[in-house]
Amino acid sequence: MNKDLLARLRPLIGLVLLSVAVALCSSRFLTTSNLLTVLRQTSINVVIATGMTFVILTGGIDLSVGSILAFAGVVMATLLGTEVPLIVSLGLVLLLGAAIGAVTGLVITKGKVQPFIATFAFMTVLRGATLVFSNGTPMPAGDGDDAFAFLGEGYLLDVPVPILLMIAVLAIAYYVLRHTRFGRYVYALGGNEEAARLSGLRTRLIKTAVYGVSGLLAAMAGIISTARLSSATPTAGTGFELDAIAAVVVGGTSLSGGSGRISGTLLGALIIGILNNALNLLNVPSYYQMIAKGVIILIAVLLDRKTES
Amino acid sequence: MKKLLTFLMALTLAPVMAFADAKPKVGLVISTLNNPFFVKLRDGAIKQAKDAGIDLVVLDSQNDSAKELSNVEDLISQKVAAILINPTDSNAVGAAIKLANREKLPVITLDRGAASGTVASHIASDNVAGGKLAGEFIAKALGGKGSVVELEGIAGTSAARDRGKGFNDAMTAARIKVVARQVADFDRAKGLSVMENILQAQPQIDAVFAHNDEMALGALKAIQGSGKKIKVIGFDATDDAVAAVKAGTLAATVAQQPALIGSLGVDTVKAVLAGKTVQKTIAVALQLVTK
User: Which of A17, A78, B70, B250 fits B244 for a cystine, CB–CB 3.0-4.6 Å?
Assistant: First the structure.
């Protein structure tokens, strides 16, 4: 019980320590506008990392999320140029993301391909498809379409809309994982796939669904990112899969599956987001930034392992 | 009999004599013609070749190194006098260039260099001069004082290094302070978030120089969100950026001159064929696009 509480608190302690350190170095850090900036920047990673949490809880991995983000972006940009109503376009793009994820899931379950390889293949294919689709140039998206731009740039009660969308995604994910049968199955599958299968769980279906969730959320991140920039860039989201995986792992979810929390993923993403913000605030020279980022992620994960054993 | 022999000799020599009279044939191998940049480069070369009296054969490698190699082979069997080549890839082009070297054909590389093989000259845009151009524009616009931010490209790339060097030289010369210098990886979304963070840290910013237009357009979004008035200068003159310059939101962008690279290539090949010595590298000037 005590140990479990400590496990929950670890990412939070890391976040607080990092925040205090940054606040001591820069007086600009703890301002409302800066904290809102950090949250808005982190929101895209949180949305992706939430889907990634589902996948990693089953013991899988999804490398295709960054490419799905970019592909969803260019499809969204294309739909915006047509007569299709906005709400329908949004639904189609989300559905497309979920479908791509589900197909990846089928390749993994029916085709018995390692998740790493299957999602890597989809990552490459979709990046290529995005470049073909956009002819390699950024596509204007919704400049002048206020309703679409609202999703990325808008405010509701003084809070940026991407932050509200992130909170909604987190709340739903939390509910699903904690209070639905599907959520318990995800944990069971990651804990011991064989046992889950023998006790009658439809493991293939659950796994496929999990990649569908990841694809859906990656597409949603693509919509937010495109709305924010009023433009869909074919190279958008490159490397985002690693940021998402880092957020999940720093947040205390085990890469071997079965244990972890959505709240941890949020904290992990915030640690990475604050780190990026702080490196900019403190004007750290570029070559050192990568070293600093890697070292801090390493420290966070090592602390996690140490208290576990 | 003797007469007949002379006649026959004249007959066989005629084509050879005609060839000597004809324009020299030069090959131009282009990485791709699916990109407006390289289409302009080709057009510049064709125009100059017409004026210089050179018979230019243009071949498209379709961004494929294998196609590039067979293009060079084709040119060699067509007996061209020299080859202008815009490599698909600096490393992969080595084999094609060595092939031409073996035939003692002069080779000139355009826009992208070659990692191996011997070339008579390499002609490309001068990124250092471009960065300097942007820096001088900012210095003039700010009246010689103010605070400037630099958004850097992917660390370690030559474009980021050279553009940054030219820009910082201009800032030092004008004694203008660069208050923040941060990497945004040539990416629009990163340009946005990095600029948002810098805006939080720096109370006063007068201008931003970004190593490419994508980052400049991202930074512009962040600045528009903050409600501040800051001049943003990009690099590359992409369609989006030129439109933003016309709309008055982007202050300026630096444009390469692909047509000039093409025409300088033809000039240089002509000099090489005339036996003159040419510079090993020729830097092509860049142009500032403003409203």
Answer: B250
CB contact under 8 A, A28 and B201: yes
Kindly report the CATH number assigned to the domain that includes residue B278.
3.40.50.2300
The verdict on residue B188 lying in a domain is yes
Q: For A224, which residue in chain B has the nearest alpha carbon?
A: B189
> What is the residue range of B77's domain?
2-119+258-284
Residue with tokens 């990009």, as numbered in its chain: B234
Q: Same domain for B98 and B132?
A: no
Check if B57 contacts A (Cβ < 8 Å). Answer: no
Judgement on whether residues B147 and B172 belong to the same structural domain of the protein: yes
pLDDT of A252 reads 86
Q: Identify all chain B residues contacting A235, using CB atoms and an 8 Å cutoff.
A: 187
At A133 the pLDDT is 86
Residue type at position A39? L
**What pLDDT, on the 0 to 100 scale, is given for residue B190?**
93
Q: How far apart are CA A69 and CA A225, in angstroms?
A: 8
**Could you give the CA distance from residue A243 to residue B126 in angstroms, rounded to a whole number?**
35
Which positions of chain A have pLDDT values less than 50? 1, 309
Residue B289 belongs to a domain: no
State the Cα–Cα distance between residues B237 and B290, nearest whole angstrom: 10
Is there a single domain that holds both residue B160 and residue B77?
Answer: no
pLDDT of residue A87: 93
Phi, psi of B234 (to 5 degrees): -110, -165
Answer whether B112 touches A (CB < 8 Å).
no
Structural domains in chain B (count): 2
Q: How far apart are the C-alpha atoms of A13 and A1, rounded to whole Å?
A: 18
**Global pTM?**
0.77
Is B17's pLDDT higher than 50? no
**pLDDT number for residue B91:** 81
Which tens digits make up the pLDDT trace of B154-187? 887 888 889 999 999 999 999 999 999 999 988 8
Domains and CATH numbers, chain A: 38-308 (1.10.3470)
List pLDDT tens digits, range B270-285. Answer: 999 999 999 999 989 8
The reply to whether residue B187 touches residue A33, judged by beta carbons under 8 angstroms, is no
- The verdict on B153 and B225 lying in the same domain is yes
d(CA A294, CA A97): 30
